[in-house]
Amino acid sequence: MARRDRGDRLGATPGAGQPGPAGAGHRDRDGQRRRPGIGRGGGDVDRRRALQPGRDGADPGAGVRTRPHHRAGGGPVTGQQVSPYVGAAAVVTADDVAAYYEGATFYSPADGNASKASLIDWVASLIDDTGPVVLHRPAALPADALSAAICVIGSGSALADLPPSGDEFSGAVRELEQHVGGRMGAVYPLAAATVSAMAPLAAAADLGVPLLDCDGMGRTFALVHHTAMHLGGISTGPLVMRGATGESVLIEAPDPARADALARPSVEVLGGWAAFAGYPGPIGALTRAALPGTVSRLINVGRLLMEPGEADVVVGRLSAITGTRRIGRGRIVELEHLSRPTDFTVPAHPSSVIIDESGGAILRLELRSEVVAVFSDGALTAAAPDLVCLFDVDRGRLSPLDSLQPGDLVDVLVTPADGVWYSPEALAMVGPASHGIPLDHPRKR
């Protein structure tokens, strides 16, 4: 299937939001090397421990296991202690980046992997140089410190053709700081999925600030104001977009939909993709508005997907930690495409995938920039904001939508979005009707 380009699913007080104590092995903003071993959260950081239940807000784990771990561009790192699937990592190290990327891919399965190796190698090398990035829940940091949401906005294929030079994301944050008159004490993903999850990790390492264990979407949506922060009353802007050419655009618009409308043509001028920094504001506001724990879970899900196993085993593991369920298994029998874009809220080129399910049903998947609806014998079974992905049964891996072929044997998997997305206001924004499907979401029936 053809690649679908898309936007990523995409009152500050001057002087507030000073960065916390220096992190392990990081440089200060003047470029001086910090003393290694000093954690940004205070005290030494144990790179191997999981967040402790009751103390760090993580779910209890099943113990620590030892197994081989792989990084792009290198051999296995054996004997490394890793946290269990259920729980959260206290830091992200260079050795975690590959699993982090795989987990991010699960929460945005529409994208291919054209820039996978280069992105993993870039971010891992950056963390190798600066030291591990510390994760904090928003409640663990000063409420009046400033933070910003980071993502990649624009086309994934453009990012592969014009890769980042390295400072686009930290540069966008610095420009945003100049505009709001205060330093950012932390950054977090606008969407903890796909390459937009990698961007704030790189920015945190480069800036020497913590990465907040939260995001605005819990998956990806098409527009920059389709976030839990927007639903919680936090302003989208001002926002900065910085391109790979070093040029940048500042947008201030009181209407968030208008900000998105201004951003899209600007991205094209900047080269097809841009580093986004927006939603500047106090960290304390995120404790009520952002989605918690969505960054640390990426590593756990990624480790699961990197372990070999039969499809039934992998789906069972995913079900245990993400709530994923299988709608059906069958072979793709037809791919349908429309050459014209939709004229609905979310711009996209509609496509459909027809699957002959092994139990006798016919599954029809409606695609925009993601799978937005699944019909089983004509009945709506799942729909946005549900996260729908396809798992290649024969190859034992997720199937990006741009790789599907007739004859592929796939499992159709559905993972529930965060509960905030099933409110009437949120469904009006990202539900089936926003994609031109005038039906109630199955949860409303």
UniProtKB/TrEMBL annotation:
Domain S-Me-THD N-terminal residues, every copy: 97-252
The protein, known as: DUF917 family protein
Organism from which the protein derives: Nakamurella alba
Region (Disordered): 1-81
InterPro entries per record: S-Me-THD-like_C, S-Me-THD_N, S-Me-THD_N_sf
Pfam hit, one: S-Me-THD_C
Location of the S-Me-THD-like C-terminal domain: 257-440
